[in-house]
Amino acid sequence: MQVFKTYFKILKKMIPSILIYVIIFLGMTFLITMNIISGDSNQFKPKKVSAFVINKDEENEFIDGFIQYLDHYVVFKNIEEDDEAIKDALFYNDISYVLTIPKGFTKGFIAGEEISLTKQTAPNSLGAWSLDAAVNNYLNTAKLYLDYDPDITMEELNHKIASSLEKETKVTFDINKLDDEVSSSEFHMNYFNYLGYTILASFIIGVSSVMLAYQGLEIRRRHHASPISSRNFNAQLILGNLLFVLGFLVLFIIIGYLLNPFRRIDSNSLLYWANATAFSISTLSLSYLIALTVRSKNAVQAISTMVSLSLAFMTGIFVPQEFLGSAVLKVASFTPSYWYVKANSSIHSSLGYNARNVNEVFGYMAIQVGFAAVFIAIALVVSKRKSQQAN
User: Rounded to an integer, what distance in angstroms lies between the CA atom of residue 198 and that of residue 308?
Assistant: First the structure.
């Protein structure tokens, strides 16, 4: 097992470089944890949502009554009515919800036409769910009165809606379990998204540097002259790579569990772990391909920094995909990182196992494994050419 032992001797020298990315990642994880705890996300209680309402319809009693009703659920914010300004406000959490009332909404709604309000929400905003329910509750109540009495006046309609919605039904249910599950999944989604950056940087530096050491022309010629068969040689390298990847994943799964303030292992946790494994396989394959195509360790360092940062920003690891342009997302879709983040978002958006959610997540994982197959196929072609040069 000489090759196997040498693999980890070389890898040991790369630990300081890997630790830099690990420290950055742990710093980001600490910020995630503090943000969730300070936000009291483990306490389920009515909370007003910061919202911006754009009224493109004419001023009338129905709209006034609707806005007055929303005042119980939102803190109205005033920002510039511009797409970029709205996106910035959502991204920086200045607002959590943007509600647009389209032109002609009142007339269309009263006439029974299919006309809808449009909304934009900040990613992972739990308050958006409660505001959605409040808006739907108001409009459904108004529709009931309009269906029952089409000739009702706006003043009467507003009065009846207000009277109906003032009535409350006392419901008792266990909210702590549900809210902890949501908060735990939110932590996991952010944790594993950022872990994608660390996996990219660490694997490229670690695996590529080690594999590069075995790719020198003199080393390959010595290998061909040694009594170790090519199959044995490659098997030891594969075992070393798999052990490194497995150890790395297990370590950070344990760290994620310990740092999660809502510590739990559920169906969503298993999906996050499986997705991280699929991404690690594709990144391992990419790292091997890079090792075959570069000629120096300095090049590996440069590629590690460039690839990990560029993919982190353009695929949704650092910046949510909702805020990226369509052109950027199209380019990003040709990388496994994009599908890794998509899978994490899909896991978070639907708590627990259901057929649609699981099929979607496993579909995204399959795409990542497909990328791994492509990288390996290209690497085999490159490796074959290098073997011919060594003979």
Answer: 8
Among 208-217, 274-283, 354-363, where is mean pLDDT lowest?
Answer: 208-217
pTM of the predicted model as reported, rounded to 2 decimal places: 0.64
- Rg of the chain over CA atoms, in angstroms? 27
Confidence of residue 367 (pLDDT cuts 50, 70, 90): very high
Length of the chain as a residue count: 391
How many Cα neighbours within 13 Å face the side chain of 259? 23
Question: Which numeric CATH code is attached to 49-172?
Answer: 3.40.190
Q: Quote the tokens at residue 195.
A: 């872990």
384 pLDDT band, cuts 50/70/90, is: confident
Q: Which amino acid is at 380?
A: L
Is residue 56's pLDDT more than 80?
A: yes
Long-range contacts of 314-322, Cβ-Cβ distance < 8 Å, separation of 24 or more: 315/340, 315/341, 316/193, 316/341, 316/342, 316/345, 317/193, 317/194, 317/196, 317/197, 317/341, 318/194, 318/197, 319/91, 320/91, 320/123, 321/345, 322/123
Q: Where in the chain is the domain with CATH 3.40.190?
A: 49-172
For residue 169, give Cα distances in angstroms to 159, 166, 198, 357. 20, 10, 49, 32
Lowest-confidence region among 52-61, 193-202, 330-339, 345-354: 345-354
* Closest listed residue to residue 357, CA positions, set 297, 271, 258: 271
Six-digit token pair at 13?
A: 């020298």
In sequence order, what are the residues at sequence separation of 6 or more whose Cβ sits closer than 8 angstroms to the Cβ of residue 305?
Answer: 201
d(CA 386, CA 391): 9
Estimate the crossing angle of helix 175-203 against helix 336-349, to 10 degrees: 170
Angstrom distances, CA of residue 45 to CA of 9, 60, 135, 177, 199: 54, 33, 18, 14, 37
Q: Which two tokens stand for residue 227?
A: 């009594």
pLDDT of the residue at 26: 83
Task: Give the rounded percent of residues in the chain with a pLDDT score beyond 70.
Answer: 82
Residue 186 and residue 36 in contact, taking contact as beta carbons nearer than 8 Å:
yes
Would you place residue 159 in the very low, low, confident or very high pLDDT band (cuts 50, 70, 90)? Answer: confident
Other CB atoms within 10 Å distance of the CB of residue 3: 18
Strands of the sheet containing 97-101, edge to edge, are 74-76, 49-55, 97-101, 118-121
Strands 118-121 and 97-101: antiparallel
